[in-house]
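Sorry, any thoughts here?
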Amino acid sequence: MLVGSALAVEGLSHDFGGLRALDGVSFDVAEGERLVILGPNGAGKTTLFNVVTGLLAPASGRITLLGRDVTRLATHRRARLGLGRTFQVTTLFPRLTVLESVLLAVQGAGSVRFTLHRPLTRFPRLYARAERLLAEWSLAERRDVTTRELSYGEQRQLELLLALAQGPRVLLLDEPTAGLSPAETAGVTEMIRRFPRDVTILLIEHDMDVALALAERLIVLHHGRVVAAGPRDEIKGDPRVAEIYLGVGEP
C-alpha cells in the first residue's frame, strides 16, 4: 500500500459459483485522487464495488481503507469510517421532498442519527446545513419538490448530493451518468468535478469522454482482471484498451 493511500485493494478475487468475476485485482487510490475504472459490461466493475463496500465477501485478497484493514468489516462500519457509495440505479425515497432527503442524509452523518423520538425541527443546525448544501449545489429552487417529480438528471444530482452530505472521505460512484442525456451528463460531470479535494473519488464509467474529463488516472478491467492502469493519455493510447472497446481483442 502506498503512503498517503486512501484505499488499497490487494489480490482481490470473487467467485459466482464457477465464474471468477474478480481475479487478483490490485490497485491503490491516493488521498484526494480521482480514479476511474473502465471496462465493458461484465468486466467486474460493480462486483469490485460490492466487495470493497462489504456487500460481497472476497474469495481472497485484502482491502485497506485509510490505513485500516476492513476486509472482514461490515458495510455499515466501513461507512462510519468514511466510505460512501452511489449505485447504478437511483435509490431515492420518491415521496420525500428534496429538502427532506438532504435532511435525512445530514442527520445520518451526525451525532443525532439515533435520536428518532424528536422531530427534526428541534435541530435547526441540520436545517441550516441542508439549506447550505442545496444552495451550493444549485438545488435550492427544487427544495419542496418530491424526488419522483424530478427529472432523471436531477435525481442523479440529488443522489450525488446525498452521498456528499454524509461527509465521506472515500466516495465510490457507480456509473453516475448512466441513462442520462448529453446535457444531463454534462451537468453531472461538472458536479463531480467540483467535489471538494478532501474527498477521494473512485468512479466506474463506461463513457470514455466522461472518464477522460474526470480522471487523473484510469484502470481498465476486462474479465475481472486489471489489463491496463495509468494516466489519462497513457490509457487513451493503449492498444489493449482500443481492442477491448472496439471488440477485436480477447473474446
About this structure: The CA atoms of residues 38 and 220 lie 5 Å apart. The chain has a mean pLDDT of 88. The two ends are 32 Å apart (CA to CA). The longest strand covers residues 5-16.
